[in-house]
Amino acid sequence: MRRIELHSYDTKEFARKYGPWAVIAGASEGTGASYAEQLASMGVNLALASRRSEALEELGARLAKTHGISFRSIVVDLMKDGAGAQLVQETADLDVGLYVSNAGADGAGNSFLDSPVERSQNLLRMNAVTLVDATHGFGQRFKRRGGGGIVIMSSGAGLGGQPWLGMYSATKAFEVNFAESLWAELQPDNIDVIGVCAPTMDTPTLRRATAGTSFDIANAYSPDDVVHATLANLGKEPLLIVPDGPEEAKIPQIQADRKQRLIMLAEWAKAYTAGAKG
Asked: Quick check: 233 and 149 in contact, CB under 8 A?
């Protein structure tokens, strides 16, 4: 299994800043469950969302017993209209300081024209519409409370077009640009945003998708490592790109260049908006 160089961070300060509750969309297994594990270990209470009620209850009960946290299960299909608003509404009574958008996996080898158009529309709703609705709702709450954090799990596939994975690649590109834009835009409101260009990770979803193929799972990353790196970089970086794929040697420079571009654009935007207001 491939590994990431991990850096320690102050988990007590993290829990103070982004607690006492976190909402995790797509929490039943894999990367979402890893977010739940690591946040619960800091004492952050969890609102866990996915379609699988039994899996959410099992995960939440185990983490509550182990770490003494509270949890809430939210049964929701993130591909359906109104899913983002449901996440916001069903946590309206909680002091949420962190929203993690983690749903959105898709298997490779899907021809755009040979797949039902409804499949593409489902991905578009999950990775764009639901994300926008939930981010807007939680962002408004974070602004009123004086701060918060938003984690948007995208993919390396969002850095460029990918044949036979076209809709997934396109919607993940939306997530990347959305996260980067909000990173700069929401800083004055003390709202931290990070987008993650996730690599291939050893998750139950990947194992199901590659069962019976020649794919070597040893080339995948640990989701625990990716989650740790994401939480450690929240509030520090607009985008975390984990080296993966044909251009991985260039990734550190690509990440640095994209951040510098954002900083320059943010300064330009400040001058533009100041002039417009004047």
From this structure: no
CATH of 11-277, one of 3.40.50.300, 3.40.50.720, 3.40.50.2300, 3.30.720.200: 3.40.50.720
Specify whether the CB–CB gap between 259 and 238 falls below 8 A.
yes
| Cα(240)–Cα(111) distance, integer angstroms | 29
* Selection from 87, 57, 84, 88 nearest residue 73 by Cα: 57
Tokens at 64, concatenated: 């509550």
Strand, coil or helix: what is 267?
A: helix
**Helix, coil or strand: residue 19:** coil
The one-digit pLDDT tens for each residue of the chain (278 residues) are 898 989 999 999 999 999 999 999 999 999 999 999 999 999 999 999 999 999 999 999 999 999 999 999 999 999 999 999 999 999 999 999 999 999 877 766 789 999 999 999 999 999 999 999 999 999 999 999 999 999 999 999 999 999 999 999 999 999 999 999 999 999 999 999 999 999 999 988 878 877 888 778 888 999 999 999 999 999 999 999 999 888 889 999 999 999 999 999 999 888 777 655 55
Report the predicted TM-score, pTM, of the whole model to 2 decimal places. 0.95
Neighbours of 92 (CB within 10 A): 9
